[in-house]
Amino acid sequence: MTSPSDQAVGAPGAGRLLEGRIALVTGATRGIGRATAELFAAHGAHVLLNGRDADRAGQAAEEIGRAYPDATVEPCVFDVGDAESIKLAFTDVHRRHKRLDVLVNNAGVLRDALVGMVSGAMLEEVMRINFTGSFLCAQMAARLMSRRRSGSIVNVSSIIGRYGNPGQAAYASSKAAVLGLTFSLAKELGPEGIRVNAIAPGFIATDMIEAVPQERRDSIQAGIRMGRLGKPEEVAATALFLASDLSAYVTGQVIGVDGGMTV
Amino acid sequence: MSDNNEKLKQAVAEGLQIAPEKVTDDLTYESIREWDSVAHMALVAAIEERFDLMLDTDDIIAMSSVGTIKQILGKYDVAF
């Protein structure tokens, strides 16, 4: 009997790794999420491109659709920081598609402050968007995936969530929580045929790091073995691996995409 | 309406892996070995599949008996 993973390796059509899959990517109007949505579309997925802002999500979906005319990319507007908004969005995914094959929990915010300067409001916001939003999306996705006893959830954590960083206690905590979620869900959902993995990007050239002072950027770059910042596309490639059957026997793992910052 | 009773009976039997004749309104969560927390999620999947809907998490938690499930499904326009 041929399994999906057999078909993925070397079989006709194997060049498009997500052919026919329904994939939701959160925070996909720019940066890593955008690059992931684009790569998934190029690999034949029906991409649900999430953003909070309808115009920006629509524009991103349209641009990707233009670049890949045979791709299907539709905006999926909801706020990962709002539980009700998530619930309505997944109910709509169910109504329209009846299934979900891939979820990439990418949406997040970066808020830097020394621990003594982290306000309750800042901590609540960072945890709500980076952690609770990922938790709730995974919860809803798992219910859609368990019906078909297959699926892949990819959580975008951070190198900061694994190793910490001065001035980023709130952000680090939220991203570490995402790893705890990943490990627990991998164990809980494995029997359902659902794989759950995480990516821990290092210093990636996105809008989110524009606020980092140049001097600090230079010092970080000096600690990267490969001597350069990462590209969103390089994180997206790892998301594609984890989303596709190439990683059919991989679950509960954290893959660092950091150019050797941790070796 | 009786159709929905039968659909629910089949969904519960499928979700909990029990005989349909064991499914009564009085059947409650954790009253039988087959209805534990793991089976509860399988039950949710079976109900959602058969009735083509998506339940709220609060409703999933509140589904403590077959009778309660009928009440909850009423919120989703499923009549019994």
Structural class of chain A: alpha/beta
Number of strands of chain B: 0
What count of domains describes the coordinates of chain B?
1
How many helices of chain A does DSSP assign?
9
Order of helices and strands of chain B: HHHH
For the largest interface, the chains and their residue counts are:
A-B, 11 and 9 residues
- What would the average pLDDT of chain B be, to the nearest integer? 95
Number of helices of chain B: 4
User: Termini distance of chain B?
Assistant: 5 Å
What does this structure look like?
The complex is a heterodimer of chains A (263) and B (80). Chain A has nine helices and seven strands; from the N terminus they run αβαβαβαβαβααβααβ. In chain A, α2 (31-42) crosses α9, α4 (83-97) runs parallel beside α5 and α5 packs parallel to α7 (169-189). Chain A has helices at residues 4-8, 31-42, 54-67, 83-97, 120-146, 159-163, 169-189, 214-222, 232-243; strands at 22-25, 46-51, 72-77, 102-105, 151-156, 194-201, 254-257. In chain A, 47% of the residues are buried. The termini of chain A are far apart. Chain B is globular and about 30 Å long. In chain B, α1 runs antiparallel to α2. The N and C termini of chain B lie close together (5 Å). With 80 residues, chain B is an all-alpha fold. Chain B has one domain (3-74): Non-ribosomal Peptide Synthetase Peptidyl Carrier Protein, Chain A. Chain B has four helices and no strands. The A-B interface holds A 87, 90-91, 94-95, 139-140, 143-144, 146-147 and B 41, 44-45, 48-49, 53-54, 56-57.
Topology:
The complex is a heterodimer of chains A (263) and B (80).
Chain A: H1 4-8, E1 22-25, H2 31-42, E2 46-51, H3 54-67, E3 72-77, H4 83-97, E4 102-105, H5 120-146, E5 151-156, H6 159-163, H7 169-189, E6 194-201, H8 214-222, H9 232-243, E7 254-257
Parallel strand pairs in A: 1-2, 1-4, 2-3, 4-5, 5-6, 6-7
Chain B: H1 2-16, H2 37-51, H3 57-62, H4 66-74
Helix pairs in contact in B: 1-2
